[in-house]
Amino acid sequence: MTETVKYLLDETRIPRQWYNINADLPEPMAPVLHPGTHQPVTADDLLPLFPRGVIEQEMSSEREIDIPEPVRAAYRQWRPAPLYRARRLEQALGTPARIYYKYEGVSPTGSHKPNTAVAQAFYNHQEGVKRITTETGAGQWGSSLALAGAMFGLEIAVYMVKVSFQQKPYRRAFMESFGAECIASPSNTTQAGRAILADHPDSTGSLGIAISEAVEMAVQRDDTRYALGSVLNHVLLHQTVTGIEAREQMAMADDEPDVVIGCTGGGSNFAGLVFPFLGDQLRGGKTMEFIAVEPAACPTLTKGRFAYDFGDTAHLTPLTKMHTLGSGFVPSGFHAGGLRYHGMAPQISHLTDLGLIKPRAYEQLECFAAGLEFARAEGIIPAPEANHAVKAALDEARQCRETGESKAILFNLCGHGNFDMQAYTDYLAGKLHDQEYAESEAAMALSGLPSV
Q1: Which tens digit of pLDDT belongs to each residue from 134-149?
Q2: In a domain, 56, yes or no
Q3: Contact present, 34 and 45 (Cβ < 8 Å)
Q4: Which positions fall inside the Tryptophan synthase beta chain-like PALP domain (predicted)?
Q5: How many other CB atoms are found less than 10 A from the CB of residue 283?
Q6: Suppose 389 and one of 92, 155, 345, 411 were both cysteines; which one would form an S-S bond, judging by CB atoms 3.0 to 4.6 Å apart?
Q7: Any idea what the CATH number is for the domain that residue 393 is in?
């Protein structure tokens, strides 16, 4: 009898609605505040940054939100994404656990990011926007928005964190291939960037700095809006196509997860897989364990403070209550660039505070080791970010080997590492090392949290 490895859905099974977890929260989230007045923001307050369609989703409490047909049509290029049963990995580990992974690396950009990039580009195009500015860490988000911009005829300007700009030249080439402009951040093109360079000429940059530059450029032109690749409610909403598909595919496997895992930087790929399952649990379904995995060098959930903070370094964004290391915190230059953010999505922060999500932090080297162990069994080299989820899944599977439990473990393999081979080359050559968490710098950044 053949044992199924891939669980596939045809294009008719692409979700028709996104899932909004705000409808099922056991306690409401703290409001988003205006940075000047500290009063709850209104839709009009956000209009200089986002199109109205996105703002409505950001503030919505409806459980299901229809996916526009042009977005579903674009999704057909890579969705539904496959769910794999990691049978070779199970055998290599000698575990009774059943390991599944949802593979988002089949998208044109090799990650989950187009799920929201296409949606945000559509809403901007629909409202006559001509140009979008954004930031990117590892380059997966910038690549995805560049692709989406080409699909909908939009100019795209991407501020890429300088250390990643230097580490990942092929990501820059990918963005430029689709017509986007890619600028190393901090840069001399914005007031925020020039201020950082004046104090720190050799700054390696951060997502907070890149966000400041992108927001500053967006508000200067009436035909320009800003797009964010993670953190905000509407971004996490768009990503739930991942979990909605995975739920149906797990049913095809006649199985149901006991543990659901994702890496977390801003939180979008974790939420995309987890929220549909967590929503089922909140409505009385099966109780599961949800593990959010972050880098030990930027431990937002495990060591950050749950407080109001700015999303950017120059304090141009609204204030959100989230787990944060302080908006001025600049993480060290470890290779998982998509996880180098000082804050965490407010929804994930809120759910962690309620005890529904269990955070975990790992060092860089152990994650690369886990990624190669996975690759040698399953044939896919994960992105450095995804290695954090792989590491947690391996740990859970080994625990099952010790206890004899046969748990179903599901994780999000949110992207491949084909653009990250220099990082693997350096790891195999012994050139990488674990990056220290700058606790004193975080303490200094946290001392500057706004008084709310």
Answers
A1: 999 888 999 999 999 9
A2: no
A3: yes
A4: 78-415
A5: 10
A6: 411
A7: 3.40.50.1100
